[in-house]
Specification:
By secondary structure, this protein is of the alpha/beta class. It contains 14 helices and twelve strands.
């Protein structure tokens, strides 16, 4: 963990609220600061991708209700998840009962100002809300894609949405290569623009291969961005599983079961990421049981010492690379 110091982690710990904090609905999960102006939200966030895979609305409703009961207040989504179904589930089961209590995030994959603003209006309609707490440029994965979106006015659209109050905060995501994040952050600085949050893969294997943790996280902390962690299980690949979007060239290959080979537990995978200076760990879950297991880690969390994190990185290093983090691409 060479690029993220213990002091950085200590600084994030100062932003924890008391674990016993509650709102009008009941006890909350531990909170962390999300934005540079002081907004806090729960350190665990419910992922929208897997929610959109639920064909039975009752399953989606049960997952949302369970998350709310357990004190989860951060809810991830994107316009493309489930071809809009994930956002519609929020409009049916989350917003009508809980809008004032939750932080809702969605994303746009658009490449022009007009399409981005259209996407946002579609998202607001689907989720039955007048605004989103966070709106993100979705999947900045190549230099060309960054340049195309800037030229197409996407950044302007996001700034406009924030100015008009349709999005309280704005940000960007990416999972294929950390250099795209670095490049976009450079472009924003040249434009005199700062966004509020950034979402990226962070896990025990990322630290040793095309690492967002090493290349991007220090700059985000320096510029006071909220850090949203995703793919803490590498989409399931860390457990040796093929998942929904495993590349065709890997379909017949054996993906190493890093958990079994290192002797680490699934809980320790989350503990590692929570011990980084992140604001929210977003986890995709298909069932209430999976939600229960992931939420339990935060409820009983003991943050790892820097020495232990370095030990875990060394255990994972032999298995780091494209086969496990197969959503990454070299530029």
């Amino acid at each position: 963990m060479k690029s993220v110091s213990a002091a950085s982690v200590a600084g994030m710990l100062n932003n924890w609220a008391a674990a016993s904090q509650s709102d009008k609905l009941g006890p909350l999960l531990p909170m962390r600061q999300l934005t540079r102006d002081g907004l806090k939200t729960t350190a665990f966030g419910m992922g929208g991708w897997h929610l959109g895979m639920a064909e039975d609305p009752k399953q989606a409703e049960a997952m949302i209700e369970y998350s709310m009961e357990q004190g989860v207040r951060f809810y991830d989504n994107a316009r493309v998840y489930g071809k809009g179904r994930a956002e519609e589930y929020y409009g049916k089961f989350l917003v009508p009962k809980y809008r004032e209590h939750v932080c809702i995030m969605t994303k746009s994959f658009s490449f022009t100002r007009e399409d981005a603003l259209k996407n946002l209006d579609e998202s607001l309609t689907a989720m039955k809300t007048d605004y989103v707490d966070i709106w993100q440029i979705h999947s900045l994965d190549t230099y060309e894609g960054v340049d195309k979106r800037i030229k197409g006015g996407v950044v302007d659209a996001f700034l406009e949405a924030k100015q008009k109050g349709k999005a309280k905060y704005i940000g960007f995501t990416g999972h294929q290569n950390p250099r795209s994040h670095v490049y976009f952050l450079k472009k924003l600085k040249e434009m005199g623009v700062e966004m509020d949050v950034s979402q990226m893969p962070l896990n025990i294997c990322d630290a040793s291969y095309e690492s967002f943790q090493q290349m991007v996280l220090p700059t985000l902390l320096e510029r006071e961005y909220g850090v949203l962690a995703m793919k803490t299980f590498a989409g399931g690949s860390i457990m040796g599983r093929r998942f929904e979007v495993t590349p065709k060239e890997l379909q017949d290959e054996d993906i190493p079961d890093v958990v079994r080979l290192t002797g680490l537990s699934l809980a320790q995978l989350h503990e590692y990421v929570y011990s980084l200076p992140v604001s929210v760990l977003i986890s995709g879950c298909k069932t209430v049981d999976e939600l229960e297991q992931n939420i339990a880690v935060l409820k009983g969390l003991t943050l790892l010492r820097e020495e232990r994190m370095e030990e875990i990185e060394k255990l994972a290093q032999p298995y780091s690379g494209y086969c496990v983090e197969n959503y990454k691409r070299l530029l």
